[in-house]
## 1
Amino acid sequence: MDEVDQVVARVAALDLAKASLVVCVRVPSDTPGKRCQEIRTYETFTRSLLELADWLRVERVTRVAMEATSDYWKPVFYLLEAEGFECWLVNPRQVKHLPGRPKTDKLDAVWLAKVVERGMCRPSLVHPAPIRRLRDLTRYRRTLVRDRTRERQRLEKLLEDAQIKLSSVVSDILGVSGRAMLDAMINGERGPRVLAQLARTRMRTKIGILEEALTGHFGDHHAFLAQTMLARIDAVTADIEKVGAAIEAAMTPFRAEAERLDEVTGIGICSAQELIGEIGVDMTRFPTPAHLCSWAKRAPIIKQSAATTRNGSAGKGNPWLAATLGEIVVGVSRTHTFLGERYRRIARRRGKKRAIVAVSNSILTIVWHLLSDPQARYQDLGEDYYTTRHTTQRRQRTLIRDLEHLTGQRVTLQPHAA
């Protein structure tokens, strides 16, 4: 491409590191068909970044581009965005430096500036500030839930080490009955019969087997560790409740969208909050549902070479969104709905992993339509959708076509006489 075929006249590109950054500014030259460029280095402290913004403003830069380098791009991107610049976050794979050239921070900044000014790359999705704050909260809540689950697993292993088989009898060892038994053992009670009598409601029908399960060698060593683990679980649970309250406050502008998503089978209010935090509510960033599925790496990939065609991997995508979609699919797979039947049909033929990806694609398509149209409402097609509208009709059309081909006559169907 010639130098005269510019797309962006005044552009800046940043090569980021933790403590410093290199910026290359390219602007039109007084000589026709030429470009001027200047390279500077700044620290990543706020004062230095404000000086960078002043210089870009003097050079009348209209677009600032940077690679998504770890988390170092976030403070720079957010500050320059607040200063009124059009900021682009670029995928490093799209602007990979050509082999055979020296690689330095200055050359990387120059290369990125040239790629951006010619329109040879696309910006990545960066949500507005309210969505970013919501996303930070939902991700932290999921992290806390994972930490609590790990601690619960450690507690269960500790009980197994003490030959306490409580988890083999009780579905939730931290339920009302299980927690009462654990507290009693920590406080020094070791008698299986006394511990079994702490069972509540329906658990009292299992007192006999509970006595067997609570017979072990639970000692003071196990009591100390169990008490520490329970205190940690309680603390994390309290933190989860605090973060949940903060999420409710951050969801105030998006409450209507969350309620529409909550109507979908399998999507609860927590999943709706996480979906909005990951994909936002502005669906104009995704022209079609297929764009959203492709961005989330939940779209089928076809790889063709000559006469060979095979299915490719969809890729990893956003791990936080993938975790949310996986939980939704697992929940909906147990329901007697259209999505549940779709999961079971695909799982029988292609396996559970492909079924999860396919149903995740359907869920994202539904989410896109609900967020695109405020008047849209979810309506389940029913578990019998495939048998009544798909399988039966297809079989009927096939038989009619075969009969017409054999007889050479037109076939019409009439209902049976009463």
## 2
Amino acid sequence: MEDVTLDELRGLLAGESVALLDVRSPLEFDGTAAAHCDPRHGHIPGAVNLPLERILECRSAVEVRDLVGLPEGTDVVAYCHVGSRSRFATEVLAGAGYRARNYVGSWHEWSRAVSA
């Protein structure tokens, strides 16, 4: 499974060819629970919040696909704060039939990017 770089993610988002899942908590997603190490808070535009905890509650690939709401085979990029929760999420998503990749830089990198 490949990781996605910042530049690759920008290209994917510009082409609208990927579903972007933020697997952090809703409070991290909306910027309420912000890490002090990040200059900006919130989420990447276009991302959908789907906390890792909800993904892990699923007991089958069918349940994961029902939760995600996208057809099997969809290109999905997951991110979190520093790439570890999203790494785990991509494993589950791939097991459910998605072409899932991890944006390893995650919000920690995106919040620092000048043109993000």
## 3
Amino acid sequence: MSESANKRLRTIEVEPDAFSLIKPGELVDIVELSPLTLQDRRVYNLLILNAWESITEPKEHCIHKRELRGTHHTSERVGESVERLMGAIARVQITRDGKTFLRRVQLLAPTDEEMNGADGLLYYSFHAGLRAIIKQSSQFARLQKEVMFAFSSKYALALYEMVQKRGNLKHKFSEEFPLERFRSLLGVEAGKLREFKNFKLRALDPAVLEVNGLGEFGCKVEPVYTGRKVTAIRLSWWAKNLDQKKAAFRELRVSKVGRRARLLGTVERVAVAPPALPARVPLPARGHSGLREAQVKSLRAAFPGIDIQEMETQFVAWNAEQGTTPENYTGALYGFIKKKVQREA
């Protein structure tokens, strides 16, 4: 094999496009010593994108503040984000001489912000230690800008970046993290959400719901116990099927209002009551589904990563063999899938 074939692809050789940006993997799995907001994380990603062509060079970059505002209509919050990024110190694991080191580095060097209103310029640069990390990087996450701006919490964006970094790995589909490290990687501030049930309710569950509903990969977050205590988190990921990708694309095209209910499959629709149906609904014909779209979404939320269409095909075939017709089609299908998942776990 030639020397060029053995050479690892460097992150800086990967190109962003009109819809996505490239973020070095070392800047994904970071521990913030200073808490950042969702807006701060978005601004930082856009600063990386803007500087990408020459990001490893010791130079100053320039961007219009309006390009960093996202959905905000003033520049004040951009300035606040820039100040927090300048004051933020991150812990990044690096390798030197075959050994692992912990590098502490500021995310952003000094900046110059034009005072001429919201459309002024921002000049910025990156410290030498951070440029060295980016130059040596050979792992990255490709982030879709539309998805990045759709998330409602910093926990969801952090989880999305972690999954995007790992989603294309060929022989690895899960990873375990010590609980405290996973909390830090999601950006949970020290002293916040200390009890696992609160951490799960306020950070983990909403983040997983949004990543599964909007991202390119599906994911699952499970607690790992030592005795009765949660000591680690297992993160699993998988490529979405075509229907799941289409559903995410559709969700990105509609208003955020009601999104959580839609992703959970609990949207209530007011409509004229349909004619009464018989107690038992006949099984659908081969190649057809007996589920409405909302019911499909609900099942996907309940069983992330499971091919609901394939499960329904097996369910219909099983009932046909038994000569049975379930009274509650959706409920019976739910029970069928649950048993299959438990048997294969």
## 4
Amino acid sequence: MRTDPFAVLAEPARRDILDKLRLGESSVTELVEHLRLSQPSVSKHLKVLREAGFVSTTVAAQRRIYRLEPSQLKAVDEWLEGYRAMWTRNLDAIEEHPEGPRPRR
């Protein structure tokens, strides 16, 4: 079953986890402390992120260490590309007319 990356990223706690992992690997305990969520809640979110391919894990003694898998974010980036082009066109148009829209008569 293929997971919709946008459905996974819709949950703010999961985005917070990815933001933390963007800075480097973390254990569940470190994520719990950083996010101030319960351990079961963090573990639940990590499971969803892992199954969707956003994070991977390794076992170090008694701990699981999580790391960001940026390749999974490629689908999100590709979807946003069309919007980037639109924003660029709109910003270019604003620069051409910095005084704003003309008043209606």
